[in-house]
Amino acid sequence: MDSPSPEAKSDEGTKDNLHHFFNKQTQDNIAKHPCYSKQAHQYARMHLPVAPACNIQCNYCNRKYDCSNESRPGVVSHIMDSAAALKQFSIIKKRAPNLTVVGIAGPGDALANPQTTFKTLLDIRKANPNVQLCISTNGLALAEHVTTLAALGVNHLTITINCIDADIGEKIYPWIFYNRKRLKGRIAATMLIERQLLGLELAAKAGMLVKVNTVLIPSINDHHIAQVSEKVKSLGATLHNIMPLISDPSHGTYFGLNGQRGPTDEELEHVREKCSVHMPQMTHCKQCRADAIGMLSDENAAPCDPSSQSSVYRVAVASHGETHIRLHFGHTERFEIYQYDQQSQQFLFEESRNVAQYCHGQLSCGEETQKGALFNTIADCQMVLSARIGITPWRELEKLGVAPNVDFAFQPISSSLEAIAKQYCRETEHTEAKHELFHQQ
Ligand code: CLF
Ligand code: SF4
Asked: How far apart are CA 211 and CA 112, in angstroms?
Protein backbone atom coordinates (compact mmCIF):
# COMPACT_ATOMS: atom_id res chain seq x y z
CA MET A 1 0.00 0.00 0.00
CA ASP A 2 1.24 3.51 -0.74
CA SER A 3 2.20 5.49 2.29
CA PRO A 4 0.65 8.90 2.57
CA SER A 5 2.74 11.73 1.24
CA PRO A 6 3.57 14.32 3.92
CA GLU A 7 1.80 16.87 1.77
CA ALA A 8 -1.45 14.97 1.60
CA LYS A 9 -1.43 13.93 5.24
CA SER A 10 -1.44 17.36 6.75
CA ASP A 11 -4.71 19.06 7.40
CA GLU A 12 -2.96 22.24 8.41
CA GLY A 13 -4.50 22.64 5.44
CA THR A 14 -5.59 23.09 3.49
CA LYS A 15 -3.74 26.28 2.88
CA ASP A 16 -0.26 24.86 2.39
CA ASN A 17 -1.42 21.75 0.59
CA LEU A 18 -3.61 23.51 -1.86
CA HIS A 19 -1.59 26.62 -2.37
CA HIS A 20 0.98 25.70 -4.94
CA PHE A 21 -1.56 24.17 -7.33
CA PHE A 22 -3.35 27.45 -7.96
CA ASN A 23 -2.87 30.91 -9.39
CA LYS A 24 -2.36 33.91 -7.14
CA GLN A 25 -6.03 34.93 -7.04
CA THR A 26 -7.17 31.44 -6.03
CA GLN A 27 -4.42 31.20 -3.44
CA ASP A 28 -5.67 34.46 -1.92
CA ASN A 29 -9.23 33.14 -1.92
CA ILE A 30 -8.16 29.97 -0.09
CA ALA A 31 -6.12 31.98 2.39
CA LYS A 32 -9.22 33.97 3.35
CA HIS A 33 -11.71 31.09 3.50
CA PRO A 34 -11.90 29.68 7.03
CA CYS A 35 -13.18 26.26 5.85
CA TYR A 36 -10.60 25.77 3.08
CA SER A 37 -7.67 26.96 5.16
CA LYS A 38 -7.21 26.19 8.84
CA GLN A 39 -4.85 29.15 8.99
CA ALA A 40 -7.70 31.46 7.97
CA HIS A 41 -9.29 31.20 11.42
CA GLN A 42 -9.33 34.97 11.87
CA TYR A 43 -11.78 35.30 8.96
CA ALA A 44 -15.52 34.88 9.34
CA ARG A 45 -18.17 33.24 7.20
CA MET A 46 -21.84 34.02 7.12
CA HIS A 47 -24.56 31.56 6.13
CA LEU A 48 -27.79 32.92 4.72
CA PRO A 49 -30.65 30.46 5.43
CA VAL A 50 -32.65 31.08 2.26
CA ALA A 51 -33.08 27.49 1.00
CA PRO A 52 -35.77 25.53 2.90
CA ALA A 53 -36.65 22.74 0.42
CA CYS A 54 -34.74 19.58 -0.40
CA ASN A 55 -34.89 17.22 -3.37
CA ILE A 56 -33.61 14.06 -1.67
CA GLN A 57 -34.02 12.27 1.64
CA CYS A 58 -30.99 11.18 3.65
CA ASN A 59 -31.49 8.66 6.44
CA TYR A 60 -29.53 10.88 8.85
CA CYS A 61 -31.78 13.88 8.26
CA ASN A 62 -34.97 15.01 9.91
CA ARG A 63 -36.49 17.84 7.95
CA LYS A 64 -37.38 19.69 11.12
CA TYR A 65 -33.70 20.52 11.36
CA ASP A 66 -31.00 21.96 9.12
CA CYS A 67 -29.40 19.99 6.28
CA SER A 68 -27.22 17.47 8.09
CA ASN A 69 -24.87 17.28 5.12
CA GLU A 70 -23.32 20.52 6.34
CA SER A 71 -24.90 21.04 9.74
CA ARG A 72 -25.21 19.58 13.15
CA PRO A 73 -28.64 17.99 13.55
CA GLY A 74 -30.76 19.24 16.40
CA VAL A 75 -30.75 22.92 15.61
CA VAL A 76 -33.19 24.82 13.45
CA SER A 77 -32.53 27.92 11.41
CA HIS A 78 -35.07 30.58 10.61
CA ILE A 79 -35.77 30.96 6.91
CA MET A 80 -35.05 34.29 5.22
CA ASP A 81 -36.04 35.65 1.84
CA SER A 82 -33.35 37.18 -0.36
CA ALA A 83 -34.22 40.75 0.68
CA ALA A 84 -33.82 39.92 4.37
CA ALA A 85 -30.59 38.06 3.58
CA LEU A 86 -29.12 41.10 1.82
CA LYS A 87 -30.12 43.36 4.69
CA GLN A 88 -28.55 41.01 7.22
CA PHE A 89 -25.35 40.79 5.18
CA SER A 90 -25.09 44.58 4.79
CA ILE A 91 -25.47 45.18 8.52
CA ILE A 92 -23.01 42.48 9.60
CA LYS A 93 -20.42 43.32 6.93
CA LYS A 94 -20.21 46.93 8.16
CA ARG A 95 -19.32 45.72 11.61
CA ALA A 96 -17.18 42.75 10.59
CA PRO A 97 -14.22 43.65 8.37
CA ASN A 98 -13.07 40.03 8.76
CA LEU A 99 -16.22 38.64 7.07
CA THR A 100 -14.83 37.24 3.81
CA VAL A 101 -17.23 34.43 2.85
CA VAL A 102 -20.99 34.29 2.34
CA GLY A 103 -22.43 30.80 2.01
CA ILE A 104 -25.78 29.18 1.37
CA ALA A 105 -25.98 25.87 3.20
CA GLY A 106 -29.64 25.19 3.70
CA PRO A 107 -31.53 24.59 5.84
CA GLY A 108 -32.52 22.36 2.87
CA ASP A 109 -30.49 22.14 -0.33
CA ALA A 110 -29.21 25.33 -1.97
CA LEU A 111 -29.95 24.04 -5.49
CA ALA A 112 -33.38 22.66 -4.69
CA ASN A 113 -34.27 26.34 -4.21
CA PRO A 114 -32.50 27.76 -7.25
CA GLN A 115 -34.42 31.01 -7.72
CA THR A 116 -33.94 32.29 -4.16
CA THR A 117 -30.39 31.00 -3.99
CA PHE A 118 -29.37 32.73 -7.23
CA LYS A 119 -31.18 35.98 -6.38
CA THR A 120 -29.45 36.07 -3.00
CA LEU A 121 -26.03 35.38 -4.51
CA LEU A 122 -26.57 38.04 -7.17
CA ASP A 123 -27.63 40.64 -4.61
CA ILE A 124 -24.62 39.92 -2.41
CA ARG A 125 -22.27 40.00 -5.39
CA LYS A 126 -23.63 43.43 -6.41
CA ALA A 127 -23.46 44.76 -2.87
CA ASN A 128 -19.89 43.59 -2.38
CA PRO A 129 -17.80 42.29 -5.29
CA ASN A 130 -14.98 41.23 -2.98
CA VAL A 131 -16.80 38.81 -0.75
CA GLN A 132 -16.36 35.15 -1.68
CA LEU A 133 -19.50 33.19 -2.52
CA CYS A 134 -19.84 29.60 -1.37
CA ILE A 135 -22.64 27.05 -1.60
CA SER A 136 -23.25 23.61 -0.28
CA THR A 137 -25.37 21.03 -2.10
CA ASN A 138 -26.21 17.35 -2.25
CA GLY A 139 -25.29 17.60 -5.94
CA LEU A 140 -28.47 16.20 -7.50
CA ALA A 141 -29.28 19.42 -9.36
CA LEU A 142 -25.72 20.67 -9.70
CA ALA A 143 -24.87 19.78 -13.29
CA GLU A 144 -27.72 21.87 -14.74
CA HIS A 145 -26.74 24.91 -12.65
CA VAL A 146 -22.95 24.99 -12.98
CA THR A 147 -22.99 27.65 -15.69
CA THR A 148 -25.23 29.94 -13.63
CA LEU A 149 -23.12 29.46 -10.52
CA ALA A 150 -19.94 30.26 -12.41
CA ALA A 151 -21.56 33.37 -13.93
CA LEU A 152 -22.56 34.53 -10.45
CA GLY A 153 -18.95 34.21 -9.33
CA VAL A 154 -19.38 31.29 -6.95
CA ASN A 155 -15.83 30.14 -6.38
CA HIS A 156 -16.28 27.67 -3.52
CA LEU A 157 -18.62 24.71 -3.75
CA THR A 158 -19.28 21.83 -1.39
CA ILE A 159 -20.93 18.60 -2.57
CA THR A 160 -21.88 15.89 -0.12
CA ILE A 161 -20.97 12.53 -1.63
CA ASN A 162 -21.33 9.64 0.79
CA CYS A 163 -20.63 6.83 -1.65
CA ILE A 164 -20.06 6.01 -5.31
CA ASP A 165 -21.69 2.59 -5.09
CA ALA A 166 -25.48 2.35 -5.42
CA ASP A 167 -25.63 -0.73 -3.16
CA ILE A 168 -24.34 1.49 -0.37
CA GLY A 169 -26.34 4.48 -1.56
CA GLU A 170 -29.67 2.72 -1.19
CA LYS A 171 -28.90 2.24 2.50
CA ILE A 172 -28.42 5.99 2.90
CA TYR A 173 -31.03 7.55 0.56
CA PRO A 174 -34.60 6.17 0.55
CA TRP A 175 -35.67 8.47 -2.29
CA ILE A 176 -34.79 11.39 -4.53
CA PHE A 177 -36.98 13.76 -6.54
CA TYR A 178 -35.55 14.33 -10.00
CA ASN A 179 -37.08 15.53 -13.25
CA ARG A 180 -40.49 15.72 -11.54
CA LYS A 181 -40.34 12.07 -10.56
CA ARG A 182 -39.82 10.43 -7.20
CA LEU A 183 -37.26 7.63 -7.53
CA LYS A 184 -36.65 5.09 -4.82
CA GLY A 185 -34.12 2.51 -3.70
CA ARG A 186 -31.27 1.47 -5.97
CA ILE A 187 -32.54 3.47 -8.95
CA ALA A 188 -32.57 6.63 -6.81
CA ALA A 189 -29.06 6.00 -5.49
CA THR A 190 -27.71 5.29 -8.99
CA MET A 191 -29.18 8.51 -10.37
CA LEU A 192 -27.96 10.60 -7.44
CA ILE A 193 -24.38 9.31 -7.66
CA GLU A 194 -24.32 9.84 -11.44
CA ARG A 195 -25.54 13.46 -11.10
CA GLN A 196 -23.17 14.20 -8.22
CA LEU A 197 -20.10 13.02 -10.11
CA LEU A 198 -21.09 14.82 -13.31
CA GLY A 199 -21.80 18.02 -11.37
CA LEU A 200 -18.45 17.77 -9.60
CA GLU A 201 -16.56 17.32 -12.85
CA LEU A 202 -18.31 20.25 -14.54
CA ALA A 203 -17.87 22.56 -11.54
CA ALA A 204 -14.16 21.78 -11.28
CA LYS A 205 -13.76 22.38 -15.02
CA ALA A 206 -15.57 25.71 -14.60
CA GLY A 207 -12.85 26.74 -12.14
CA MET A 208 -14.64 26.29 -8.83
CA LEU A 209 -12.80 25.01 -5.77
CA VAL A 210 -14.77 21.90 -4.93
CA LYS A 211 -14.81 20.44 -1.44
CA VAL A 212 -16.48 17.07 -0.92
CA ASN A 213 -18.21 16.30 2.35
CA THR A 214 -18.75 12.68 3.31
CA VAL A 215 -20.74 11.57 6.33
CA LEU A 216 -18.97 8.61 7.94
CA ILE A 217 -21.58 5.96 8.80
CA PRO A 218 -20.01 2.93 10.52
CA SER A 219 -20.67 -0.42 8.83
CA ILE A 220 -22.38 1.32 5.90
CA ASN A 221 -19.75 3.42 4.13
CA ASP A 222 -16.67 3.36 6.41
CA HIS A 223 -14.83 0.74 4.31
CA HIS A 224 -15.67 2.59 1.09
CA ILE A 225 -14.71 6.22 1.73
CA ALA A 226 -11.15 5.86 0.47
CA GLN A 227 -12.63 4.89 -2.92
CA VAL A 228 -14.82 7.99 -2.80
CA SER A 229 -11.77 10.10 -2.06
CA GLU A 230 -9.82 8.66 -4.96
CA LYS A 231 -12.71 9.12 -7.37
CA VAL A 232 -13.61 12.68 -6.44
CA LYS A 233 -9.98 13.71 -6.54
CA SER A 234 -9.70 12.33 -10.09
CA LEU A 235 -12.70 14.47 -11.09
CA GLY A 236 -11.19 17.69 -9.74
CA ALA A 237 -12.18 18.00 -6.05
CA THR A 238 -9.56 19.78 -3.94
CA LEU A 239 -10.47 18.99 -0.35
CA HIS A 240 -12.23 16.17 1.52
CA ASN A 241 -14.22 16.79 4.69
CA ILE A 242 -15.16 13.51 6.37
CA MET A 243 -17.78 14.29 9.00
CA PRO A 244 -18.93 11.96 11.77
CA LEU A 245 -22.56 10.83 11.62
CA ILE A 246 -24.41 12.43 14.53
CA SER A 247 -27.13 9.98 15.40
CA ASP A 248 -29.40 10.61 18.33
CA PRO A 249 -32.88 9.09 18.66
CA SER A 250 -34.15 12.47 19.89
CA HIS A 251 -33.42 13.96 16.47
CA GLY A 252 -36.01 11.63 14.96
CA THR A 253 -33.93 10.52 11.97
CA TYR A 254 -34.23 7.06 10.43
CA PHE A 255 -30.72 6.18 11.55
CA GLY A 256 -31.23 7.70 15.00
CA LEU A 257 -34.44 5.76 15.57
CA ASN A 258 -32.98 2.51 14.27
CA GLY A 259 -29.89 2.35 16.41
CA GLN A 260 -27.33 3.32 13.78
CA ARG A 261 -24.37 4.63 15.76
CA GLY A 262 -21.91 7.37 14.83
CA PRO A 263 -18.16 6.71 14.56
CA THR A 264 -15.72 6.92 17.46
CA ASP A 265 -12.92 9.48 17.27
CA GLU A 266 -10.49 6.65 16.45
CA GLU A 267 -12.64 5.39 13.58
CA LEU A 268 -12.92 8.88 12.16
CA GLU A 269 -9.19 9.44 12.46
CA HIS A 270 -8.49 6.07 10.80
CA VAL A 271 -10.68 6.83 7.77
CA ARG A 272 -9.22 10.32 7.38
CA GLU A 273 -5.74 8.81 7.51
CA LYS A 274 -6.61 6.34 4.75
CA CYS A 275 -8.12 9.06 2.58
CA SER A 276 -5.20 11.43 3.07
CA VAL A 277 -3.32 9.23 0.58
CA HIS A 278 -5.62 10.66 -2.07
CA MET A 279 -6.54 14.16 -0.95
CA PRO A 280 -5.94 16.87 1.66
CA GLN A 281 -8.29 16.35 4.59
CA MET A 282 -10.28 18.98 6.44
CA THR A 283 -10.35 18.34 10.18
CA HIS A 284 -11.57 21.62 11.62
CA CYS A 285 -15.19 21.52 10.42
CA LYS A 286 -17.69 22.71 13.02
CA GLN A 287 -20.73 21.12 11.33
CA CYS A 288 -22.27 24.52 11.64
CA ARG A 289 -25.89 25.49 11.22
CA ALA A 290 -27.51 27.03 8.15
CA ASP A 291 -27.62 30.49 9.74
CA ALA A 292 -24.15 30.38 11.35
CA ILE A 293 -22.20 33.62 11.36
CA GLY A 294 -18.64 34.17 12.54
CA MET A 295 -15.22 32.60 12.82
CA LEU A 296 -14.84 28.83 13.04
CA SER A 297 -12.20 28.89 15.72
CA ASP A 298 -13.19 28.65 19.32
CA GLU A 299 -9.70 27.62 20.39
CA ASN A 300 -9.18 30.90 22.19
CA ALA A 301 -12.16 30.51 24.46
CA ALA A 302 -10.16 31.14 27.60
CA PRO A 303 -11.08 33.45 30.44
CA CYS A 304 -9.72 36.95 30.17
CA ASP A 305 -6.55 37.87 31.95
CA PRO A 306 -5.60 41.41 30.93
CA SER A 307 -1.99 40.81 31.95
CA SER A 308 -1.61 37.95 29.48
CA GLN A 309 -0.74 38.46 25.81
CA SER A 310 -2.93 35.48 24.86
CA SER A 311 -5.99 36.70 26.76
CA VAL A 312 -9.30 36.88 24.98
CA TYR A 313 -11.75 39.68 25.60
CA ARG A 314 -15.25 39.19 24.29
CA VAL A 315 -18.26 41.44 24.29
CA ALA A 316 -21.78 40.12 23.68
CA VAL A 317 -24.29 42.54 22.17
CA ALA A 318 -28.02 41.85 22.42
CA SER A 319 -28.98 42.32 18.78
CA HIS A 320 -31.21 40.84 16.12
CA GLY A 321 -29.16 42.61 13.45
CA GLU A 322 -29.98 46.22 14.32
CA THR A 323 -27.38 48.96 13.87
CA HIS A 324 -28.05 50.38 17.38
CA ILE A 325 -28.22 48.84 20.85
CA ARG A 326 -31.98 48.83 21.24
CA LEU A 327 -32.86 45.49 22.78
CA HIS A 328 -33.77 44.77 26.38
CA PHE A 329 -31.60 41.90 27.66
CA GLY A 330 -34.71 39.86 28.50
CA HIS A 331 -36.17 40.22 25.00
CA THR A 332 -33.19 39.22 22.92
CA GLU A 333 -33.07 35.96 21.00
CA ARG A 334 -29.60 36.53 19.65
CA PHE A 335 -26.24 37.87 20.76
CA GLU A 336 -23.53 39.12 18.46
CA ILE A 337 -20.14 38.21 19.87
CA TYR A 338 -17.14 40.46 19.27
CA GLN A 339 -13.57 39.62 20.18
CA TYR A 340 -10.85 42.15 20.89
CA ASP A 341 -7.97 41.98 18.42
CA GLN A 342 -4.67 42.99 20.02
CA GLN A 343 -3.06 43.87 16.73
CA SER A 344 -5.65 46.25 15.32
CA GLN A 345 -6.86 47.29 18.78
CA GLN A 346 -10.46 46.94 17.75
CA PHE A 347 -13.27 44.46 18.22
CA LEU A 348 -13.74 41.96 15.41
CA PHE A 349 -17.01 40.21 14.85
CA GLU A 350 -16.71 36.58 15.92
CA GLU A 351 -20.16 35.01 15.61
CA SER A 352 -23.87 35.18 16.32
CA ARG A 353 -25.35 32.99 19.03
CA ASN A 354 -29.05 32.25 19.26
CA VAL A 355 -30.77 31.91 22.63
CA ALA A 356 -34.28 31.36 23.92
CA GLN A 357 -35.77 34.62 25.18
CA TYR A 358 -35.20 35.17 28.91
CA CYS A 359 -38.53 36.91 29.35
CA HIS A 360 -41.81 36.37 27.50
CA GLY A 361 -43.79 38.76 29.69
CA GLN A 362 -44.87 39.09 33.29
CA LEU A 363 -46.49 35.66 33.56
CA SER A 364 -43.79 33.47 32.08
CA CYS A 365 -40.65 35.40 32.71
CA GLY A 366 -37.77 32.99 32.54
CA GLU A 367 -38.05 29.22 32.93
CA GLU A 368 -35.06 28.08 34.99
CA THR A 369 -33.52 25.81 32.35
CA GLN A 370 -34.01 28.45 29.69
CA LYS A 371 -32.32 31.08 31.83
CA GLY A 372 -29.41 28.73 32.55
CA ALA A 373 -28.92 28.09 28.83
CA LEU A 374 -29.01 31.80 28.09
CA PHE A 375 -26.34 32.62 30.66
CA ASN A 376 -24.16 29.73 29.48
CA THR A 377 -24.33 31.08 25.95
CA ILE A 378 -22.44 34.21 26.92
CA ALA A 379 -20.47 32.90 29.92
CA ASP A 380 -17.18 33.18 27.98
CA CYS A 381 -17.74 36.94 27.43
CA GLN A 382 -16.49 39.63 29.74
CA MET A 383 -19.22 42.17 29.00
CA VAL A 384 -22.75 42.22 27.63
CA LEU A 385 -24.33 45.29 26.05
CA SER A 386 -28.08 45.82 25.97
CA ALA A 387 -30.47 48.77 26.18
CA ARG A 388 -31.85 47.66 29.54
CA ILE A 389 -31.57 44.75 31.93
CA GLY A 390 -33.42 43.70 35.09
CA ILE A 391 -31.73 43.48 38.46
CA THR A 392 -32.03 39.66 38.71
CA PRO A 393 -30.23 38.83 35.46
CA TRP A 394 -27.79 41.67 36.23
CA ARG A 395 -26.71 39.89 39.44
CA GLU A 396 -26.63 36.48 37.74
CA LEU A 397 -24.31 37.84 35.07
CA GLU A 398 -22.02 39.44 37.61
CA LYS A 399 -21.75 36.11 39.43
CA LEU A 400 -20.56 34.58 36.16
CA GLY A 401 -17.98 37.31 35.66
CA VAL A 402 -19.87 38.93 32.77
CA ALA A 403 -20.27 42.69 33.28
CA PRO A 404 -23.70 43.97 32.20
CA ASN A 405 -23.43 47.37 30.52
CA VAL A 406 -26.35 49.63 29.56
CA ASP A 407 -24.26 52.80 29.22
CA PHE A 408 -24.49 52.62 25.45
CA ALA A 409 -28.26 52.18 25.22
CA PHE A 410 -29.60 53.41 21.86
CA GLN A 411 -26.08 54.20 20.62
CA PRO A 412 -24.67 52.66 17.41
CA ILE A 413 -23.08 49.28 18.08
CA SER A 414 -19.93 50.15 16.11
CA SER A 415 -19.10 53.38 17.99
CA SER A 416 -19.92 51.71 21.32
CA LEU A 417 -17.44 48.93 20.57
CA GLU A 418 -14.83 51.50 19.54
CA ALA A 419 -15.22 53.26 22.87
CA ILE A 420 -14.95 49.99 24.79
CA ALA A 421 -11.89 48.97 22.76
CA LYS A 422 -10.14 52.25 23.62
CA GLN A 423 -10.95 51.82 27.28
CA TYR A 424 -9.81 48.16 27.26
CA CYS A 425 -6.60 49.09 25.46
CA ARG A 426 -5.81 51.77 28.05
CA GLU A 427 -6.51 49.34 30.90
CA THR A 428 -4.37 46.61 29.34
CA GLU A 429 -1.45 49.00 28.84
CA HIS A 430 -1.82 50.19 32.40
CA THR A 431 -1.79 46.59 33.71
CA GLU A 432 1.25 45.72 31.61
CA ALA A 433 3.08 48.82 32.85
CA LYS A 434 2.32 47.78 36.44
CA HIS A 435 3.67 44.28 35.74
CA GLU A 436 6.89 45.67 34.29
CA LEU A 437 7.33 47.95 37.28
CA PHE A 438 6.72 45.02 39.62
CA HIS A 439 9.32 42.85 37.86
CA GLN A 440 11.90 45.65 37.83
CA GLN A 441 11.62 46.10 41.59
FE1 CLF B 1 -20.38 27.55 4.74
FE2 CLF B 1 -19.63 25.22 3.94
FE3 CLF B 1 -19.01 27.35 2.55
FE4 CLF B 1 -17.82 26.86 4.86
S5 CLF B 1 -19.34 25.88 6.25
S6 CLF B 1 -21.04 26.60 2.88
S7 CLF B 1 -17.66 25.63 3.03
S8 CLF B 1 -18.71 28.82 4.21
FE9 CLF B 1 -17.22 25.00 6.95
FE10 CLF B 1 -19.33 24.90 8.47
FE11 CLF B 1 -17.84 22.74 8.14
FE12 CLF B 1 -19.29 23.65 6.19
S13 CLF B 1 -17.23 24.63 9.12
S14 CLF B 1 -20.06 22.89 8.09
S15 CLF B 1 -17.17 23.03 6.06
FE1 SF4 C 1 -31.53 16.59 4.75
FE2 SF4 C 1 -29.55 17.89 3.53
FE3 SF4 C 1 -29.99 15.26 2.98
FE4 SF4 C 1 -31.69 17.16 2.13
S5 SF4 C 1 -29.54 16.89 1.50
S6 SF4 C 1 -32.24 15.23 3.13
S7 SF4 C 1 -31.69 18.64 3.84
S8 SF4 C 1 -29.32 16.12 4.93
From this structure: 19
